[in-house]
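Folds abound. A case:
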Amino acid sequence: MYKTQKISLHQPVKLSLLVSGCCMFTCVSSAFQLLWNYKLNLTTDPKFESVANEVCKTTISEVSECAAEELGKGYLVSCLVDHRGNISDYQCNQYITKMTTIVFSDYRLICGFMDKCREDINSLHCGSISTGEKDIHSQGEVIACLEKGLVREAEEQPGAHAIKEDCKKSIMRVAELSSDDFHLDRYLYFACREDRERFCENTLAGEGRVYKCLFNHKFEEALSERCREALTTRQKLIAQDYKVSYSLAKACKSDLRKYRCSADSNMPRAREARLSYLLLCLESAVHRGRVVSGECQGEMMDYRRMLMEDFSLSPEIVLHCRSEIEGHCSGLHRKGRTLHCLMRVGRGDMGAIDPNCQRALQTLIQEADPGADYRIDRALNEACESVIQTACKHIRNGDPMILSCLMEHLYTEKMVEDCEHRLLELQYFIARDWKLDPILYRKCQGDAARLCHTHGWNETSEMMPPGAIFSCLYRHAYRSVEQGRRLSRDCKVEVQRILHQRALDVKLDPELQRRCMTDLGKWCSEKTEAGQELECLQDHLEDLVSDCREVVGNLTELESENPPLIQVCSFCPQDIQIEALLMRACEPVIQTHCHEVADNQIDTGELMDCLVQNKHQKEMNEKCSVGVTHFQLIQIKDFRFSYKFKTACKEDVLKLCPNIKKKVDVVICLSTTVRNDTLQDAKEQRVSVKCRKQLRVEEVEMSEDIRLEPELYDSCKQDINRLCQNVAFGNAQVIECLKENKRQLTQRCHQRIFKLQEVEMVDPELDYQLMRVCKHMIRRFCTESEGKNVLQCLKQNKNSELMDPKCKQMITKRQITQNTDYRLNPVLRKACKADIPKFCQPILNKATADSELEGQVISCLKLKYADQRLSPDCEDQIRVILQESALDYRLDPQLQIHCTQEISRLCPEEAAAQEQTGQVEECLKVNLLKIKQEGCKKEVLNMLKESKADIFVDPVLHTACALDIKHQCAAIPPGKGRQMSCLMEALQDKRVRLQPECKKRLQDRIDMWSYAAKVAPADGFSDLAMQVMTSPSKNYILTVIGAGVALLFLMGLLCGRFTKRVTQELKDSGTGNAHV
């Protein structure tokens, strides 16, 4: 056996010598063809089969296909190699492995390969061998030549030869058989030998590991071009048949069978084998929430990344985007740059794109699915790495929310230019197919199937193309209950998120976005490029809702005007004009955000307004910021210095605010007029629509910097230097600092801040810090709320899981402010308009117009709430305040004023936790007997009294007794002490078994109320009645009272009869005397 094997193994060596000799004599092409045919005949030597018969006798009998092979044609050895994965016999396995390594290229020609591919080998001139120094033993050139021909045909390259179907299958089968060990792909092995040693020295051969390692280093600068070319050819074969990748086929074998990814009888087998079909089928399973093995998902991710890195692996891209690549994207093939260049062309940024190329790009994006994991897109990953590390570091690496986070930070100071471009290029295609946003798909797939008749993730419908699904979802997002068939809450939130991101993408005017959000989703959801939304809204002008129609009409009117060239007003001081120095300092901002204004030479006012609006963009540098702020400070000296404001409001100023010159005074005058007309429900606003719109811009700009409100700034300058000296002026930070230190302000500044807060509470849009910090939460929760109701909406959604912590903290600050004075709570003020003077007039008599009442009026109303004497509307508002302050003691100003020291002494841990669960209040109640300060004790007693009226006001008790309320008091409506009385009766009833915690808490409350009754006697009959009803001796007290009443009744009857008898005797006596 050994001798035979030795002869067999040395046959190629003799051939190599012959080849070398031929090369020395410079053989012509025909000689190479003869030489190749000679080698083919030589390798049919029956010695190969005789050795195989002897060594693999057992294996041949087990493998029926090999036992049936005809001897003498070389088929037996090829059959054993074909089934080498199933060979268990050690000697046979060793022999076949050695044979495969040595004569693999020749074997492929023996295995029926020559019969099936003879014509194609001759047509493509593949029947010769390379005779390079390193390749004298390789006949892999033949296979490599055929593989390249197969790729050229798939890409429909000019002059490509059509390979016969049988030969195609043989080529792919050979590639598949060499997929586990890169040594078996002789051409790639010799092309990449040195690269393997350089990059994959420690990678063991087998199971496709070396292939994967080389793929990962394909775009390294040090990799040889010949190896890169061989790797690309193999990757293209994998794209045509996933089985050419050993690791992918092995890892996903069970999942493919499980999800029937190769059982579609309606498509040709060749399509089922394509990598794209495998990815789409398994991605569909993942998106449907099915379980795909982690090993398979890891392999899928590698190949999805591969598709995004090298466009040439997609034959459709190569075929349909050839002109775009040559015209715009040549030389950028590495690391996904060509693909992103094509995406940029697809966005329309570099001219028109062929529709077939556009479709090929869209298909590739769906196959690679980078929306599910941004790391798949290498170009995006590298460009956005710094942004992700700073702006999105709180999100898990690879989470689909990363893309959403990047979109939220678009055009912010954290975004870098390269990331912005890559993000918008990818987002353009994701926006055109709702399925490519995995979060939207996961939250809305049920709604889409129910309302929009969608199919599976990788299926499409002509009746409902992918781009129309989002429009369908949006149409159902804002339907009323009467209209029916609405979206689920989770889906609605995602639809809103997409709308916000699209608005950011195209740099929509915020006012346009706020007023036209509904119409943008309804009519323009597929219009995502700059300027398209406004054009779309103009096209549908008659179909828009009234608010949107108004703002679009105004913008259209402004567009139709021919703005004047740069104007110099005769009354403007010289330094108002934008100097060349300032222009140079502001060049980055102008180029990025104001280039249209600058290019069109629009007047100075327009350009400066643009700079003011973009004052906090990342391109704004310190010199430009100082110059713009200086210009704003000059503007406030005279409203005429503000060109747009003067143009919009000149007639209104002459009519309503004559003789007022300072801009800030004019703004106050006009805004007061608008506010009064609104509060009085005037039929017609006295300030024109155009002026109101510009007035809003001026008010918001003024609220951004305290220096733009001179009277406020002058009043608080001393306090700013004392309390806020290290706080920057921009973003209303100084104003917020003064609010937080309100108790330490001088009287004059305190009065101004109070007035400012009163205005902001009526119109929260003027609260710059609130609107800035809660900008995204307002978009999420309050898109349908009017501007004046924004704070109320945020308060209602404060405890939502989706609420941003910083915004929640800001809402709490505003609630604390509101509770210091009823005048800072417009909703409460309106609801309790009649109750406040009726019950709290003594407090009002002491009040001043410009300082807080420190919650005294609200405390007064709380007590009347406990007495059940408030009007229904006022009662509803006080109940909300009671519930909120019961969870967070900071919302009760009187409690905080009187109990600060006691809280520090008795409840330091509860106060430090700041959990807003009512633990501080509970601690004070439990330690009532330990409280030394009378003022604090009184406030705690008031809390106990309030809790009698409504159990919701006592969160700890309500939580403890929630189950008992449900079982014992379900039929009793809350409020007016009804549920509390129900629980007390249940506590007294021995037949009822309350929860231990509830029973304990109730007993604690009874003890507290008993103490409270001793310390603070009842104020009136209603209070006395409430104390009796909640007393543990209620039955005894009622019995005594009843006995007393009965006794009085009996005494009355007896006294009445006695008095009547005496009166009758006196009458009789008087009559007798008269007769006498």
